[in-house]
Amino acid sequence: MKFPRMQLVLMPLVLLLGLALWSGLLAGKTIYKYTDENGILHFTDRPPVDDVPVETTRVRVDTATAIRMRTETVDGRQQQIIDNLLHGPVQIELRITDSENLRTEPALPRRFVLERGFSGELVRYLPQSRDRGWRYQVSSSYVPGMPGVQPDRDYSYLPPWPAGQRFYISQGFHGQSTHNSPDAVYAIDVPMPVGTPIVASREGVVMEVQQDYYGAGQDRERFGARANAVRIHHTDGSMAIYAHLDAESAMVRPGDVVLAGDIIAHSGNTGFSSGPHLHFAIQVNAGMRLESIPFQFLQAGGTRAEPVTGTSITGVSP
Fold first, then answer.
1. What is the CATH number of the domain that holds 256?
2. Strands (E), 244-303
3. What SS3 string covers 158-181?
4. In this predicted model, what pLDDT tens digit does every residue of 236-256 receive, in sequence order?
5. Which residues are registered as beta bridge partners of 288?
6. What is the total count of domains within the chain?
7. Would the pTM count as exceeding 0.85?
């Protein structure tokens, strides 16, 4: 599966003063509960296709965003403040897509790296001529992680399932089925029953948690961005992504420190998926682009095993 680079577009209305606003961290979602013609109970965020009695509940959820842009007035001057909402570093690129009578300090486009907890002004938007109106439109893209890190290629990762349990690798490195993009070339897919405990393969800080999606399918356009996932940031700058998790199953929250072997969620079947499985990868920020990197799993007796398609891997204790 592929996790696309996130984008924000800011379209402020400006007359004599530059102003950029972006908000909307909270969103609503409708949950549908119904029983189909086969007597199967469904609890999903997708309405039923057939005409059956259905109960609906409106819930409030956090949208998955890493960057917030807002304005503050300081000494009579409007400032555009950017907040890093991820619990880890993020790289952001700012671009002017439309403007009139505008200059910026520094010049755009430009890339910035925001440390965890960063909140401040990155760019000043000013009129070239103060005697006439001005306007601008800012577009931004962001990628989690610090660019240019040198990950520990010799690290032995725990298999992300409980010790003693053995699972088959249905798609290993360079999988041609769905793992043909840079962020997934070295990802693996592991079929497993829904509800299987998923454990952290390495200690780190939880960067992101998405657990509000229900349902799965093979329509990439419809389901491609709807996989529940946990992202964990490691001390060497690499990040682990655990995806297709069961809805509302996360045992951790952004900012939590986890140790290898801690249960972080339960497996599921959400997003772009043909069946219940875990998607797992180690990724780095290669400069406004997520790239997956090879890894090996720790095995009994301190040996290591590469997750090759068609082989099985047994979980071990840390």
1. 2.70.70.10
2. 257-258, 263-266, 271-272, 277-285, 290-292, 296-298
3. CCCCCCCCEEECCECCCCCCCCCC
4. 999 999 999 999 999 999 999
5. none
6. 3
7. no
